[in-house]
Design brief:
The protein has 135 residues and is mainly β. 13% of the residues lie in helices and 48% in strands. An 8-stranded antiparallel barrel has the order 1-2-3-4-5-6-7-8.
């Protein structure tokens, strides 16, 4: 009986000591809120300035959601993957008859984001640089 207790104790100790993985830090709160978006269209169109909102993804703690991108309204929601703390990826998505993808980065203070985005309406790729500044 005492050998069994010793084996259980040793097993518990070994299992507990093997779990040295640090907890995953949720970086999304740094991005949340209202941001001013300035579009620099590489096609020569007049730049637009409008507000967007960044929220947490409800199903993936590595993602955030931007609503009102391109000033298309709050139902136009784009998911962005946070690759590292400040490196962002817009994986290929189809939203309201548009295809969108891109990448970007945030500054170390999470006050500015630059996104390089390709938006396709089914006919033409629009390549834009979106500069976001936290309000």
């Amino acid at each position: 009986m005492s050998r069994l207790l010793i084996l259980i104790f040793i097993s518990f100790f070994l299992l507990h000591s093997c779990d040295n993985t640090p907890p995953i830090e949720d970086i999304r709160p740094h991005y949340l809120g209202v941001w001013e978006c300035s579009e620099d269209n590489l096609s020569g169109m007049t730049p637009s300035i409008y507000d967007i909102k960044i929220s947490e993804s409800s199903h993936d703690m590595r993602k955030i959601e931007i609503s009102n991108l391109y000033n298309f309204g709050n139902n136009f929601i784009v998911e962005i993957l946070i690759e590292e703390k400040t490196i962002l990826t817009i994986e290929q998505q189809n939203i309201q008859n548009f295809s969108i993808l891109g990448n970007g980065y945030a500054d170390n203070n999470y006050e500015n984001i630059e996104l390089n985005v390709t938006l396709n309406d089914g006919n033409v790729d629009q390549i834009q640089i979106l500069n976001l500044q936290k309000k």
